[in-house]
Write a structure and sequence with these properties.
single chain; Arc Repressor Mutant, subunit A; 2 domains; three-stranded antiparallel sheet; 15 helices; binds iron/sulfur cluster
Length: 387
């Protein structure tokens, strides 16, 4: 049987500096490890692919960390390994996350030439005070300078990441960031509500009172303002935190939200394939050492995997509901659900669904179940009942 199309996530765990809000698995001052890391990664890709290049890939997402710290030669090696060891769809979406400071026309054209066709840029804010608080490497002028070069290099599918709900941020500075973003007219916009993550300087500063705690009501107002401005500018919201021009949905992330299989490689990556959820070694040094071991486990597990859990049907259904309800328009497709699980969702959870429809939290039509706008704020209540 031909396996269904998979997504492939590659984690590049290096950054030049650490942002003050960031709790991702990423490390500074480790640049000298990058060549050995790329060797290990190429090896892991070959192992994850298995003996035959028969795992179809519909999307590849190189994230981090800062993938734009790798040279064009290193990217070429990674992408050619994928092409030769997986069945990469000719129209595959191949995305890369980048830091604005790493980009110039030569590098951008090189990435495009190697096969990347979707670029994500960590803009985060157009406000210098906010960028300094985050200890971002770039200032906003850099984004303004590189924007035309991104288009000139041939990228016609570009995402900008923005952060809202941060200390000192006002509705006005957020509006300015949104205005600046719309001036660039990107194809896709992802909004991140700032979280105060354990172990980050930003959380410590909020706790010791040196910066103000973000205000939840103001953060909700910022989300509403973004929804209004992006809608007026012709962007279509398709997920709780994601907007795009028609036809520019991130296909890689849709794979996650539809709870479909993805392979994860690189330190601290997560995967869901072959009926198993798994995660890999966090430390880049130990990751490199592990990839020198002989593989013993079957697809999709590699020597980098430190934890794996088989997913039974009940958990697969729960994950499908939890992820799918993030999709604001598509939600859960009733036919797709019935074909996948051999049972209608309305038969399985009819009573609970009816209760939340009546309470105005869920919307059901012939083809989909979605959260209503009010339901998005109370999604935990709906999911608790459903799962
Ligand atoms: S660039 Fe991204 S991954 Fe690196 S420290 Fe900043 S937020 Fe984290």
């Amino acid at each position: 049987m031909t396996p269904s199309p998979h997504a492939l996530y590659i984690h590049i765990p290096f950054c030049t500096t650490k942002c003050t809000y960031c709790a991702f698995n990423t490390y500074t001052h480790l640049e000298t490890l990058i060549p050995a890391f790329v060797d290990a990664l190429v090896n892991e890709l070959k192992i994850a692919a298995g003996e035959q290049p028969n795992t179809p890939l519909a999307t590849v997402f190189v994230g981090g960390g800062t993938p734009s710290l790798l040279t064009l030669e290193q990217h070429a090696r990674i992408l050619s390994t994928i092409r030769s060891h997986f069945d990469l769809d000719t129209g595959a979406e191949i995305s890369i996350e980048t830091n604005p400071n790493d980009l110039d026309l030569t590098y951008l054209s090189g990435l495009r030439h190697e096969g990347y066709n979707r670029l994500s840029v960590g803009m985060q804010s157009a406000n210098e005070r906010e960028l300094r608080l985050f200890a971002r490497r770039h200032d906003h002028a850099v984004v303004t300078q590189i924007w035309p070069l991104i288009r000139q290099a041939g990228f016609d599918n570009v995402n900008l990441d923005l952060i809202y709900g941060s200390p000192f941020q006002t509705l006005d500075t957020w509006r300015q960031t949104l205005d600046e973003t719309l001036r660039f007219a990107p194809d896709h916009i992802s909004l991140y509500a700032l979280g105060l993550e354990d172990g980050t300087p930003l959380k410590a500063w909020v706790e010791d009172g040196s910066v103000p705690r973000p205000d939840d009501d103001l953060t909700a107002d910022m989300y509403d303002l973004a929804t209004e401005m992006l809608d007026q500018a012709g962007y279509r919201q398709y997920e709780i935190s994601n907007w795009c021009k028609p036809g520019h949905e991130c296909r890689h992330n849709l794979q996650y939200w539809r709870n479909l299989p993805y392979i994860g490689v690189g330190p601290g990556a997560h995967g869901y394939a072959g009926g198993v959820r798994y995660s890999t070694e966090l430390s880049p040094q130990r990751y490199v050492r592990r990839l020198q071991e002989t593989p013993v486990n079957p697809f999709p597990l590699t020597p980098a995997v430190i934890e794996s859990t088989p997913v039974d049907r009940a958990n697969e259904i729960a994950d499908t509901l939890m992820m799918g309800l993030r999709l604001t328009r598509e939600g859960i497709e009733l036919d797709t659900f019935a074909a996948r699980f051999g049972v209608s969702l309305l038969e399985l959870h009819g009573e609970v669904i009816a209760k939340h429809v009546q309470a105005g939290l869920l919307h059901v039509d012939d083809a989909h179940i979605t959260l209503t706008e009010r339901g998005r704020f109370l999604s935990n209540v709906v999911l608790r009942d459903l799962i």
